[in-house]
Amino acid sequence: MQPKPTLWKSIPLTFLIAILQTVISLIPGILFLKNSSHGALILNYMILYLLISDFFQLVGKNTYKKGKSIPLVIYGIKLIISAVLIYLIIQQTAIQFGIILLAYELFQMMIFSKQFYYVDSLFYSFTNAFFKGIVFNQLLTISYPFDYDFELIKPFIFSFLIVLFLTIFTQGMYSYLSRQPIFLFLGVLSLAGTYYLTIQHYLSQQLDTWKLVSFIAATIISFFLFMKTKKAKKKEFILNLFALASLVIYYIQ
After folding, report:
1. pLDDT, position 65
2. So what's the pLDDT on residue 148?
3. Is 41 exposed, middle or buried (0-12, 13-18, 19+ CB in 10 A)?
4. Mean pLDDT of each 10-residue bin along the chain, 253 residues long
5. How confident is the model at residue 40, as a pLDDT?
6. What whole-number distance in Å separates Cα of residue 57 and Cα of residue 70?
7. Residues 111/61, Cβ–Cβ less than 8 Å
8. Cβ atoms of residues 69 and 63 within 8 Å
9. Triad 172, 174, 180: Cα angle to 5°
């Protein structure tokens, strides 16, 4: 009878982490909303859609770690809610937005299946970072007509690297195939890549001194708290706080 209280106690923290992940996915785009004529129209729908998706992903990864999968009935309810929100987003924008979000639903479907060991793959790492670091922010900032320019990706390279670091590090916590050492190494490598980009921007005067110093301070404080904490969920919470703080520091005007 002991596991039940532990399960129920973990739900508030899981939901809080889902909120952080939703904000992480959108904060750069929100700070660029002034450049978009449509981002504000779908922001509430996007927040709700990603919050539901992030919560279910956290639950799905937790069941994956245990070698199980989410019951089909529960997953079906999630799909219905997501479909309604995608439809509402299309109503405010265009069919292209819906196609992108349907692609994200397929991505999530692979997470919820234990058959492919997707959470243990680098394909998951980069796909998750691509959607949360670049795609969702661009959905908020892109304007009609859809004359897409790949230069629009550049502002979100930093967010891509931060989400990549966060994804890889937390993959080690959910690894069913015991690949923790691999993800730890790759996580450190991705953080090094983030620092390389940050220093390059600073040297080229694209980044203020206070932002670089704040980013370093956030890294040191987060590392100290991460090492001091023993529970995996709290470690994940700290990593998400670090990612959010880093994005706010970098993108705030």
Report:
1. 86
2. 63
3. middle
4. 50 92 95 66 93 94 84 91 95 89 93 81 95 93 68 90 96 90 94 96 95 97 94 94 97 89
5. 75
6. 10
7. yes
8. yes
9. 25
Number of CB atoms found within 10 A of residue 25's CB: 26
- Candidates 253, 247, 239; CA nearest to 214 is 247
Which amino acid would we find at residue 198? T
Question: How many CA atoms does the CB half-sphere of 197 hold within 13 Å?
Answer: 16
Encode 109-170 in three state secondary structure.
HHHHCCCCCHHHCHHHHHHHHHHHHHHHHHHHHCCCCCCCCHHHHHHHHHHHHHHHHHHHHH
CA-CA-CA-CA torsion sign (141, 126, 72, 236): negative
> In this structure, are residues 141 and 33 in contact, taking their beta carbons and an 8 Å threshold?
yes
Report the pLDDT value the prediction gives residue 191, as an integer from 0 to 100.
96
| Termini Cα distance of the chain | 52
**What tokens appear for 82 in the block?**
């997501």
